[in-house]
Design brief:
- By secondary structure, the protein is α/β, with parallel strands linked by helices.
- It is 30% helix and 27% strand.
- The two termini are 37 Å apart.
Length: 271
């Protein structure tokens, strides 16, 4: 990259930069406009064809300003303001998700709709696991789609009765990180986040990671319809985790979320 004229910055000592961000600042007439791309997966042509990842392109002024701030922080090591929309590890990401789980738990205690759905690669971070357990004990319905390691035992009587865990193993490597919270009846009491981070201690405390809300209602529903609902309904490639840590295959002749996803996007391709 340096041989081609790019300035390469290696980030903050002791913190691996795992966020996936791209920012273009373009002069348009008399003003500058920012275009940003955020991704749940790497900018890699091979994995782009093998992994299920989500890319998010935006000109939202608050979000692009946050991304610009992160780049300045990584390149200059200066202290910056708190982001307005972007959640940044190892600073605000973990604590924000814990607060969201507490909000869902409060809604469950009040008899309101209370729902959490998380799709990640691994779940091993203790504070986040405690937050999930407490929300489930309060009455929230929780579904976890965790491809790999998950140390939260689901369906344990009196502890995780309201938590279900499944892993989807199909043709492509599941790699999207999607987090859904619902804490009431109104539209503004629902939020979807996309993230570069798995829920592991190293991601929350020893890496530069990002998560961001999907504010546009059409895009938010698209993420729910493509990245969450089919995987909760998968009857072909899904494995359900039992309370003793073993996995049981849900089925082999049901609907495959990955095949449905490929068919959905293949139908959108031009002739």
């Amino acid at each position: 990259l340096e041989a081609l004229g790019a300035q390469v910055v290696y980030g903050i000592v002791g913190l691996k930069t795992h966020a996936k961000m791209l920012l273009v600042t373009r002069r348009e007439g008399a003003r500058l406009r920012r275009y940003a791309h955020l991704s749940t997966g790497n900018y890699n042509p091979k994995t782009a064809g093998l992994y299920t990842d989500v890319g998010y392109l935006t000109t939202n002024t608050e979000l692009t300003a946050d991304i610009d701030m992160v780049f300045q922080q990584l390149s200059s090591l200066t202290q910056s303001r708190n982001p307005r929309q972007l959640l940044l590890a190892p600073f605000s990401l973990q604590s924000h998700f814990i607060r969201m789980m507490e909000r869902v738990a409060d809604a469950a205690r009040a008899g309101l709709p209370a729902r959490i759905v998380v799709k990640i690669n691994a779940l091993t971070d203790e504070p986040l696991i405690r937050g999930l357990i407490e929300a489930g004990q309060a009455g929230a319905k929780i579904d976890l789609i965790v491809r790999g390691a998950c140390v939260l035992p689901p369906m344990v009587e009196g502890l995780t009765d309201n938590i279900r865990v499944r892993s989807v193993v199909g043709r492509m490597l599941e790699h999207t990180r999607v987090i859904y919270f619902r804490w009431g009846h109104e539209d503004h009491e629902e939020v979807v986040y996309l993230s570069s981070a798995d829920w592991m201690n190293r991601n929350m405390t020893r890496r530069i990671e990002v998560a961001w809300p999907v504010r546009d209602p059409v895009l938010r529903q698209r993420v729910i319809d493509e990245c969450l609902v089919p995987y909760l309904m998968d009857g072909c490639d899904a494995w359900e985790q039992l309370s003793d840590g073993h996995y049981r295959r849900v089925g082999t002749d049901g609907r495959s979320a990955q095949r449905a996803l490929m068919a959905r996007h293949r139908d959108k391709e031009p002739d």
